[in-house]
Amino acid sequence: MDIIHFCHLSESDKRLPVYLTSAGQWNHQEPVHRPDGFASYQWLIILSGEGALHADDNVYSAKAGQAICLFPDVPHRYHAVQEPWQLMFISMEGSLCGPLLAQAGITKSGVFTMLDPVKMQADFSSIIEGAGSSDSHASVECSKLLYALLLDIPMQTQAKQHTRHQHFERLQPVIRYIKEYCQLPLSIDLLAQQAGVTPQYLCLLFKKAFNLRPMEYVNRERIQLSKELMVLEPQLKIQEIAGMAGFEHASYFCTVFKRLEGISPEKFKNSQSY
Fold first, then answer.
1. How many domains does the chain divide into?
2. Residue 25: is its pLDDT beyond 60?
3. What is the dihedral of CA 113, 81, 146, 14, to 10 degrees?
4. Residues 179 and 149 in one domain
């Protein structure tokens, strides 16, 4: 049975960072042609059959186990190739929709393979059921479910999973080197040599794998080492700890520590006293 629910949204609902506008299921998806696109983000999962999506001058095959993401106001059309082409769909808006999709490497309309279709179908079913509820708090509850779904998408799709893993694997020699020698003076050139790449490409790999610059990663390892030193050798002074963790200046160590940990090294050290 076909299902569609439109959400009754208050002004406060529309101020949520993500909120549901509609949700449902089509057991026999009819052809859709939107020359001006659709006003909201849409996420559709294919339950059976196969279809084709035309968007951004590309044609994508979409079959069971895959999902379609449509960005607002982007012209598109889609239709069945092998019937029955059965879909679940959600439409959503809010300031965090784009950034949360971008975390999964999804920055434009397209088709993406789901790593765990059963879980995503269960998540969709919960959202669709919530959208059809007459409860006065239904829209807020749907927003919670939708937010959780969007947070899971990086782990649920292959849009970014494989490339991120490849970048991580490529950086393993560098990561091991930093772990072992973070207390020593390190440079971008030296780190790049460990992976056999140029310094510029090393920066790109770190950005794609960790969303950090290489020296930011080094500083995080140094802060971890400093915390271990504070716990294991409480007699050491902050300036001594800074030097042993690889920081040339204690003042810079204190700045980095507070930025990453939220408290000063002194407060952290005192909190570890037994």
1. 2
2. yes
3. 130
4. no
Q: Give the residue from 159, 46, 45 showing the smallest Cα distance to 101.
A: 159
Q: Which pTM was predicted?
A: 0.61
Band (pLDDT 50/70/90 cuts) for residue 180 is very high
Mind listing the pLDDT tens digit for each residue in 134-166? 888 899 999 999 999 999 988 887 555 445 566
- Indicate if 119 and 82 belong to the same structural domain: yes
Q: Domain containing 213: what range?
A: 165-271
Same domain, 147 and 117: yes
- List the single range of 78-92, 157-171, 182-196, 216-230 with lowest mean pLDDT: 157-171
Alpha-carbon distance of 86 to 47, in angstroms, equals 5
Closest of 129, 180, 123, 189 to residue 157, by C-alpha: 123
Spell out the residues 6+ positions from residue 223 whose beta carbon is closer than 8 angstroms to its own: 245, 256, 257, 260, 261
Distance, CA of 254 to CA of 263 (rounded, Å): 9
Q: Do 150 and 174 sit in the same domain of this protein?
A: no
Q: Answer yes or no: do 107 and 180 share one domain.
A: no
Give me the residues paired with residue 19 across strands. 93
Q: SS3 for 63? A: strand
Angle among Cα 32, 45, 81 to the nearest 5 degrees reads 50
Q: Are residues 28 and 140 in the same domain?
A: yes
How many C-beta neighbours within 10 Å does residue 47 have? 19
Are 125 and 220 contained in the same domain?
no
45: phi then psi, degrees, rounded to nearest 5: -115, 140
